[in-house]
Amino acid sequence: MPYFQAVIHIKTIADIQIYRRIAKCSVTFRGKIGMFKVELTRLTSSNVVELGTLLAYGQRVTMLSIDIQALSITQCFRLFSNLRFPNLTCFSTQTLPHEGLDKFISRHPTMSVITLGPCNRVGPHCALQSTGALQQLEEVRGEFKCISNLVSRATHRIFADVSTTHEFGYPELFKKISDVDAGVRLLSMEFTPSDTEVMPRLAAALPGVSTLRLVQFIDGVTALNAQSCRHFTDKRAYRQSIPVDIPGIRWHGAGT
Description:
The protein folds into two domains: 96 residues; 125 residues, no CATH class. It has nine helices and eleven strands.
């Protein structure tokens, strides 16, 4: 019989309780869990414990996607403090505070794809800057300051965003790429047209990049005009791809 993996989608507190009871009673069910997808609005302290217990049953999980609105740093620490997935390759979140994720990410050095949401820390620093490079990381998405230290020689695809305070941290990212000799082939990054240093630094740090996607970041656009842009976010800023002619570089448009 062909082997299949189950995707467990958690959308309510009731889902946590139901799947936890099933997993507790069925070794076969636990062995079939290949992915947890958690989408919740709010958890109490007891709910955090229940969710952690459920997630811990997924020892064959390869993909983990967790988005919980209004989860505090303390709750995030509690949820992830003892979780370990031997086969985890992909991790994604848009909402979790990064302070609660650094040790979890360090415990999973074999992850190949990571997607991170906005950093909750104002300023140039992020808790993930204490995390070392992930030697099997092929693709990473997140703010410059949050993903720079995760990049390794295996990293081929980088999608870098500006922080919520509109800070551009690409010099640190470019330095890390150069230091580890990452074979980056696709780079998508936000930038501001007034920064004349971005292209020379990019060319020096990524001589082997074959696909480049620059997303122009312009402040001060009214909400009415910005709403017509597909890349408008709660930063109240306008993003658009710009065509730049560089021999040997293939360009991706904003909508691709």
